[in-house]
Amino acid sequence: MTASTANIPIAIIGAGIAGLTLAIRLRQAGYAVKIFEARSEEVGSEGAFLTLAPNGINALKALGLAERISARGIQTLGIEMLNASGKRLALIDERKLQHESAAASITLPRSALLEELLMAAKAAGAEICFGHALTDLEREGACVVLRFANGVAVRAAWVAGCDGVWSKTRRLAFPDAPPPTYTGLTGTGGFIDLPAVAPTDGFMRMVFGEHAFFGYIKAEQGPVFWFDSFPLAEHDAMARPDPRALAAFTRRLHAGDPEPVGEIAANITHVPRAYPIYDMAHLPRWHDGQIVLAGEAAHAVSPHAGQGASMAIEDVVVLAACVTHHSTRPAAFAAYQELRRERAEHVVKISRQRGTQKQAKGRFALLLRDLILPWVIPFGARTAHSVMRYRADHAPLVKPGL
Ligand SMILES: Cc1cc2nc3c(=O)[nH]c(=O)nc-3n(C[C@H](O)[C@H](O)[C@H](O)COP(=O)(O)OP(=O)(O)OC[C@H]3O[C@@H](n4cnc5c(N)ncnc54)[C@H](O)[C@@H]3O)c2cc1C
Prior knowledge:
The chain is α/β, with parallel strands linked by helices and 402 residues long. The protein has helices at 17-28, 54-61, 66-70, 95-101, 110-123, 168-173, 234-237, 243-253, 261-266, 308-325, 329-356, 363-388; strands at residues 10-13, 33-36, 49-52, 74-76, 78-82, 88-93, 105-109, 127-129, 134-140, 143-148, 153-156, 159-161, 181-192, 203-208, 213-218, 224-231, 275-279, 291-293.
């Protein structure tokens, strides 16, 4: 497709990870883009932190942002997994893989990632309209007319739905699409200053506790980055408890966990919100020739494999390559779906499998889990590492193997 200099811009719905990276990449290729974001503020504090895997950092290289974004986080060398008594179940050392992939895993506050992406999108010349929640869309000849909750209506050359797991774009464009599935787990997370807690030497330490799963990482300087996940009924997961009540619940959940998890949990006084964890195994269509989906709008990945953000950035690199390479939009979108869908569904599956390991309840189930995990984890790590080796920045138009 030739770069559009016409007055009608491409509309991107959502200024999250997929939306901002797509705007940057399309601007770099010379397209006029406008982002419409429901949030009224530029960068919220929601979402605590995430880890970008080597494949995500390598995808960021295509945008020229890998170094800047890596500098905002903690280099994460691997994962140490412990059982409820503090006994090591496995140590997954990613250093060899990271060396071979020429990229580290980076754990960073979500707000830092969004800040960098927002800055880069503005510098690239993308127009960003906050306070614009998409409510309706209508195909009108070669264009799409978008309507927003604030009464604004806009005409777009084509639309990229980057509006996350509950994507309104997806629901409007593909009303028969299956909804996301609740995985049975809910998560929380945050940052806490605890100088007495020892640094984790670059490793994310994760504990399969008696009642819940807990993970944390701490650099030489700075706070403890912590998260947890626990089984919860969907109805309860959708409730929005008071942050102090949620903190009290978190303290109780981890009170018996091995140190320093017990100590970290005991000091948690405020948990802004919980995240019910949904995923979406298969979406029959990612596009209709005028409207295309990327990131969680196309393939919601539960966070257990630490791949959702990386997959969103990969999507964008491949989508932008298809748009610039193919002479028609339908051909570009069809190529994008063909290149991405199988890999995304594979990652959704891996992540879902990891999540089931966190659902064990009762003494017998915990005992069995302790016996099985040391065998299962190395196999899971090999699968995860093969996902991390993919280089979207090198060959975005070549279908990756699984
Ligand atoms: C607790 C938790 C921990 C996670 N940890 C990791 C991790 O360690 N590593 C990792 O790779 N991934 C992780 N993830 C997943 C990762 O956060 C997502 O995969 C990633 O944010 C997806 O990016 P996205 O741009 O597709 O969606 P989002 O980041 O959700 O962005 C969607 C944007 O669209 C906007 N929007 C929604 N509806 C509308 C509308 N109607 N109109 C306009 N705008 C709209 C939203 O406000 C939002 O800004 C985690 C997720 C959770 C919940």
